[in-house]
Amino acid sequence: MKLLTVFTPSYNRAYCLHQLYESMQRQTSKNFEWLIIDDGSTDNTEVLVNDWINEDLVPIRYFKQQNQGMHGAHNTAYEHMETELNVCIDSDDYLTDNAVELIESFWEEHRNDKYCGFIALDCYKNGQIIGTELPKHLKSSTLYDLYYKHGVAGDKKLVYRTSLMRENPYPLFEGEKYVGLNWKYLLLDKSNELLILHEILCVVEYMPDGSTRNMLTQYRKNPKGFAFYRVELMKLPFSSLAFRYRQAIHYISSSLISKNKNWLKEVPNKGLSILAIPLGLLLYFYISFKTRGIISQKGKINEYPMA
């Protein structure tokens, strides 16, 4: 059995998926398989991937489902994984040539059940690290502490133990396609730390149709998913008061968008949420103004405004 599953949620990305496929072929270690979750693509992704499967240059498993959004594709991926470790590589990104080898050797040296996996670096095509380096003085840390105590910034690559990632599937909300992926990662912070690998594993390109670029649109289209995410982050026992207050602001904004009249009953910290109402209102008006262009003439939000 292979050690690592590289999984890729993909929606209408046939035009750029070849970069990742080519990087798979260049890997210095073959101790992996590629799991592609086609989240309802309407382009030629299925034909393209089947051609690659027939080439038999990379071990590929392919599953197509009705569109559920990124978090729904992650749920499906975790259900079908058979390896000890997994890493998500987005459809517009690709692996460094020795990424699998680095993952394999690092885990062989440090494998321990007290760790949920490890965190490594992403870079741009020019080799520049995205955001900050990881703390040199730490062997391991929770994800929360890295970002909110040690000043880490920017996207990083997360390699997780598959058995842990199968727990707590992301919820699906009817008519919506987004729940913050960090929810599952931060849940693991309650019981496990991440090892720190000071190596680049992934080359990242932020495409115009990517979720990072379209976050305000996602915010407007998926208020129930965003509200769930913010409530769950407010429950984290290790988070700071300032962190929970920020979540309360976003929760109020999302509750206003979804017209949830029961928002105060559903929030874990009612006093903090009441204090967050003024800024939550301001954020609601800002989001409404900035995303007014995604509303069609019939008053409905376009499902894929950038596709």
Structure annotation, total helices: 13
Largest beta-sheet details: 9 strands, mixed
Q: What is the H/E order?
A: EHEHEHEEHEEHEHHEHHHHHH
Give unreliable regions as ranges: 295-307
N-to-C terminal Cα separation, in Å?
A: 37 Å
Q: What does the overall shape look like? A: globular
What name does CATH use for the topology of the largest domain?
Answer: Spore Coat Polysaccharide Biosynthesis Protein SpsA, Chain A
Number of strands: 9
Q: Helical amount among residues, as a percent range?
A: 25-40%
Structure description:
The chain has 307 residues and is of the alpha/beta class. It has two domains: 4-203, Spore Coat Polysaccharide Biosynthesis Protein SpsA, Chain A; 215-294, no CATH class. Helix content is 39%, strand content 17%. The protein contains 13 helices and nine strands. Strands 1, 2, 3, 4, 5, 6, 7, 8 and 9 form a nine-stranded mixed β-sheet that branches. The radius of gyration is 20 Å and the shape is globular. The two termini are 37 Å apart.
Relevant terms:
nine-stranded mixed beta sheet, disordered C terminus, alpha/beta, Spore Coat Polysaccharide Biosynthesis Protein SpsA, Chain A, 307 residues
Could you outline the blueprint of secondary structure elements for this entry?
Elements: E1 4-10, H1 17-25, E2 32-38, H2 45-55, E3 60-64, H3 70-80, E4 85-88, E5 94-95, H4 99-110, E6 115-123, E7 140-141, H5 143-148, E8 156-161, H6 162-165, H7 182-188, E9 193-203, H8 215-221, H9 223-234, H10 241-258, H11 263-266, H12 270-275, H13 277-290
Parallel strand pairs: 1-2, 1-4, 2-3, 6-9
Antiparallel strand pairs: 4-8, 5-9, 6-8, 7-9
Helix pairs in contact: 9-10, 10-13
